[in-house]
Amino acid sequence: MGPLSVALWVLAALMCIVVVGFHVSGAVVWYNRRKTAAAERSLAKKGDGTSFQKEVAAIPGGEEVLKCIQCGTCVASCPNSAEMQYPPRRLIAMVRSGMRQEVLSSNAMSYCASCYLCTARCPRGVQVTDLMYVLKQLAFRYGFRHEPTGSPARYGRFVGQINSKGRVHELGLMIGYYLGTNPLSMLKMGFLGLKLMARGRSPLAGKAIRDKGQLAAILTKARALEAARTTEEVGA
Ligand code: SF4
Ligand code: SF4
């Protein structure tokens, strides 16, 4: 086979990868939209907005939602507030008004860069960044997916790996992330991934911690404590 034939075969293979990747990416976007729509429908049926504030307050980091005086310092400090559907001050007001569906379906938490400026400057000591994490956690739990940032998908993969292995395997994390969001963009990072692997910086297989059973017991206990706290707070 001559060099021209080899080049044509390589070109054809690349085109196939791009076409397949394009269709898979479309399917992933469609799936994420369906999942978000299903989450919205399920929350609409739930229709219980009044307990939302208690639900947020029951999770560590969300307790201080009532301390906010709506001064707006956090919004003025936030480098990403212009990108957010609802900036932090408004998000807190919406949590207090029980607007569960609107808050959890918004993109605000996904655009939070965890810079902690809001937290450092809040005159009431509200841990706004932690609150963002709480809302992100709840949004993920209810099944919301925000395509523009891919942040929930990364978050889900990260937590999934910690749950199953006790530590993160970077290669598996990134492959899972791209497959769950936009497989085509994996092509852009492929070269970098190969370079890291060649230098031994990114092992093919991830290792689990030694005592996974102990970690599972800790996580089970933590979930039970959180569930009990939520029931107590929301039912109070
Ligand atoms: S800076 Fe603090 S008190 Fe002011 S709006 Fe933001 S969270 Fe509320
Ligand atoms: S931690 Fe998040 S919400 Fe707070 S200022 Fe930074 S980007 Fe904005």
Q: What do you see in this structure?
A:
- This protein is mainly alpha-helical.
- The chain is 67% helix and 0% strand.
- The mean pLDDT is 82.
- The structure holds iron/sulfur cluster (2 copies).
Secondary structure elements and their pairing?
Elements: H1 3-46, H2 52-57, H3 73-77, H4 88-96, H5 100-104, H6 108-111, H7 117-121, H8 128-142, H9 151-165, H10 170-181, H11 186-198, H12 212-235
Bound molecules: iron/sulfur cluster (2 copies).
- In round numbers, the mean pLDDT is 82
Number of H/I helices: 12
Structural class: mainly alpha
Bound molecules: iron/sulfur cluster
Strand content: under 5%
Tally of discrete structural domains: 1
Distance between the termini: 77 Å
- What share of residues is helical? 55-70%
Largest sheet: none
Regions with little confidence, pLDDT below 50 for 5+ residues: none
H and E string: HHHHHHHHHHHH
Radius of gyration: 21 Å
Which shape, going by the Cα principal axes?
Answer: globular
Total number of beta strands: 0
Structural key phrases:
mainly alpha; binds iron/sulfur cluster
Could you give a short description of this structure?
With 236 residues, this protein is an all-alpha fold. It has 12 helices and no strands.
